[in-house]
Design a protein that fits this description.
Elements lengths: L2 H10 L13 H20 L14 H5 L13 H8 L1 H4 L24 H9 L1 E7 L2 E7 L8 H12 L11 H10 L7 E2 H9 L1
Parallel strand pairs: 1-3
Antiparallel strand pairs: 1-2
Helix pairs in contact: 4-7, 6-8, 7-8
């Protein structure tokens, strides 16, 4: 090969790419600038305290939640307490599990005089318990060391007004009185035998 052939090959090569003075195309810079200016203008033009109906519909009161005491006695939420402590056995519908856990819906023990369900929650039950003509032989834990008077009153009030039940609310004062009356009791109620006496 001679020098002339080498020179011709070099002339046919494209020059190496380089950024030059403007690495981003002008059209891209223009689009980005327009979008940024539009966003800034939108933020400035939009009032920071728009009415809630223009957003997701939540009001300030909804976002702040319930005031203390609004959920029930002492601020306890009966539905929440039920979900945390009772739903595993008695189910979300209050129907229980046939042959295993008794129903709360239409239960004569739930609808009995206020002191009966209060004592059931405070001390628990063991042995045979008849609910709606069906015998259950299990054990219900005591909640006297787990729930406060207000919490027991709230969950009982919830159960007595849910699942088709129509009994009245139970006051925390009544639960406190029953707790004080049974403060020496160490054992759970012995099913029908004890609870029938309590109903009288």
């Amino acid at each position: 090969m001679n020098d002339e052939t080498n020179n011709d090959a070099r002339l046919r090569e494209h020059p190496d790419p380089h950024e030059g003075g403007l690495p981003v195309p002008k059209i891209v810079l223009g689009i980005v600038s327009v979008v940024v200016l539009w966003a800034v203008g939108y933020i400035i033009a939009t009032a920071p305290n728009d009415p809630p109906e223009l957003g997701d519909g939540r009001t300030l009161a909804t976002l702040q939640g319930k005031a203390a005491g609004a959920a029930g006695a002492g601020g306890a939420d009966g539905a929440q307490i039920y979900a945390a402590n009772c739903v595993a056995c008695h189910q979300a519908t209050g129907a229980g599990l046939p042959g295993v856990f008794p129903p709360l819906a239409g239960s004569e023990w739930v609808l009995a005089a206020d002191k009966v369900p209060a004592n059931i929650l405070l001390h628990g039950i063991t042995g045979k318990l008849t609910v709606k003509d069906t015998a259950y032989n299990g054990q219900m834990p005591a909640f006297k060391d787990k729930l406060s008077d207000a919490e027991i009153a709230a969950v009982l009030s919830y159960v007595r007004s849910s699942f088709g039940n129509g009994a009245g609310k139970i006051a925390a004062d009544l639960v406190k009185a029953e707790r004080d009356a049974g403060k020496d009791r160490k054992d759970p109620w012995n099913g029908d035998e004890d609870l029938n006496k309590l109903k009288q």
